[in-house]
């Protein structure tokens, strides 16, 4: 049983008009908010934020809550070897894999109540709408809690959707350690969430994957729009730049006889910023940031002999990331030459640009239009949907968050914006269920 | 018994012609080099450098050697409460305090064979010349090994000349700890070098202090001159700059909606460099360096929210240091305003400009002329002479070092340059002894 093939071209899309069967179904804003508050009982912090690291006792408690809550709306559950939980509500055609509505319940150590949690809560709200209206969908639906999306306790991020999507092996992921040396596998066993279902698309498929997530950026907040349509995920490349100069005494070395690695690094930081703000890539959404710097020997009277930089380049198109990389590399080489420095420029991680499935995105687009929204965004950050898209049609809905702030206790989305996100998810998901119904019956002819 | 007053004006200087009694005395280059090699037996490293931290077993060994070596040339010894060793060779008038020829035998952990060691070795060479020629000087002479000049094990630098000169108390200095929590006092006792002589000018005065030291900068090497005349020490101020921006996701935050503390810091580094290379202070020898940087949260995909910088400003004149400070502060405030950053600019240490005693400097000038050198340098670095100058007439001789490199195993001064340094010290010291003889006899009249 395989997922339907990803549709190729938006131009060739079928009608995605919502069937009469699903007309009149809407989410309940107050209920959605109540579910969100319930999902934040365990691990909340006095400053209004959350601290719920993967597999701690609060994570166990919220997982128990998630299972008992979704049982109320007719779900049975699968827990896989990575602790990913699939709360499955049957449909009319249970030989199909379920359509997934997923995100994550773990948080950063100083995180907020919306990143990840809102996506799971919107999935539960969809279940509640179906349950309250006594609707049986065509395909089954699964609300999914992906384990360790943040990677805050067990790096890297998006670990367990990554296992499901084939990026990481189970052995690698279960062996990831926290700072105390505990492995994720041991901790999953400790809290009773190492399941027996194989953690893979092949053994435990979904038909598709929708995800609601806060934007974690300011575009919607500036535009005063509750939701946005996510077209895909930016191309991302990470680099480590090592700059070697010559240590020398700050007091005795004339200014014109220095090979100052930190002065060179400062020029590189400015050039990086100039390239993405003043050249052709700027209007195309190119971004480049140096956020990590380390220098040695950390002595106020010894000119820095060695500086390392972490460089993050992103753009909607892979070609623009390549262009920014090339411009940075050339600029850095010129700076190094002028200052008598040596430099290495090492690309240690790539994530190519990802375009979500056109049919899925169209479903989101039509559903978003019904809540008055049409802004289309390329996600700047990674999400579980990056890895589900490796296997199944995937799309995302972004929800406005105040000032674009995330990974911080001040992270906040208004109740009406959260409800708009749930409404867009409901509309998009039901359109896709309709689409599957039609595609399946056509296939039968 | 107090030191002679510091003379006010070079114009009023007495003749410093070397008396016939001292004519024909010269150092021996090979002997000076042999002494240097002997002084580097303990703590030498395979890369040609030195690792002799204060009060380690190698430091005890070289102290034992220093005492036994200087005994050969007629010295008796005083060891004070800070382990400073005074190897005193009597003169004709032993009611006068000795003229000091001092420097230090401790090194950086990855240091060289010349920084400090050469100064003590040149003092020993002077003793050898006097001894070999059976000369009894007018005043007694003391070769001094000051403890913990580097401050590498027990910060701060120049600690024990600082106690002698009244900058630090004995209790403070003896209580300084290394990284393992051992105090300098405990370690001095352990190696048998906590003496009973009070560590102070008042209780154990010198009449004056000469010091030979490698330049630790490139001026003499560029000019191809073996020695230089040190006029004094630059004005130095150290600052801590804290920059606060706003942490945000590198992938989701548009370039024009950032308060990037590291981008602001990079602009400050460039402005600092511009101020001392392109404004009026440049030809007057102003220097400013940011050599220390730290950023948080050290995550490649989170814009730096906080950056701290260490700023070192120097110039021969205090007024230029003030001017550079003012220009940096104004530039930093403008950068902070433009980027939405907040900044604090904290001056945590000052060392005002120091002009060495004109009579002493004239002695060095005349002696340097006899080895063909006339370059005058304001020292960019601190030395034990900074603190001796608080109490007694002080002057220094700089010796050329290859490429200006210091605090590194590659630190190197040629044998003939080291000998020229010793010759300049001998000539300057003997001129001052003559001067004291004449001044004392005049005073008696």
UniProtKB/TrEMBL annotation, chains A, B:
UniProt protein name: Putative N-carbamoyl-L-amino acid hydrolase
Superkingdom of the organism of origin: Eukaryota
One GO MF term: hydrolase activity, acting on carbon-nitrogen (but not peptide) bonds, in linear amidines
Key words of the record: Hydrolase
Upper classification of the organism: Eukaryota, Fungi, Dikarya, Ascomycota, Pezizomycotina
Organism encoding this protein: Lophiotrema nucula
Statement: the UniProt record of this protein carries the keyword Hydrolase: yes
Family membership: Belongs to the peptidase M20A family.
Keyword Nucleus belongs to the record: no
Domain Peptidase M20 dimerisation: 233-333
